[in-house]
Amino acid sequence: MTKTILTEEQKKQVVNLLKKGMSAKEISEILGLPKRPISSIKAHFTMGAYDDRGDVIEKITAAQETSLSIERDLQTFLCNDLKQIEPMLRLFQNGKEFITDIGRIDILAIDKNDDLVVIELKAGKAKDESLGQLLGYMGFVSSDIAKGKRLRGYIIANDFEDRLKYAVKNLNNVKLKAYKVHFSFEDVD
To answer: pTM for this structure?
Structure first.
């Protein structure tokens, strides 16, 4: 997970192309920008949360930063306590934001049998494209790192699209886990 905050001008370009009905992938290819922040902008734009008056960029920036913050905080929390995912799970060497030739793996871990576990985190609801991302990372790890070890993967999100749930049903080495956030507040004297 890399933090990519677009410039004000880039955000305006993205919004203008969204207004023309272009997909996040098309916009990414045209502008040469990463798809993730464009998808974040598109999600908030299509919810009708923005108007044409200039609040658009501020709201998009806040939404982008909140999404990145939730995912980053979740990643930090899990790296410090991987047993929340499964017992005896531990971080692989430099397993937080593990750098590969095809991108950064959110968390690369080792299970109790010394097999590798690829963990993809999503702030909010995970879409079916999350599975493609996870399987790509798993394919890379299988061919370049695993050296004959078994390999499994998790997608961890707050919720999952039905299409993703169905896609994972027949995959024995991929599981979905939902996180729940609970805040409690107390007075400070």
So the answer is: 0.64
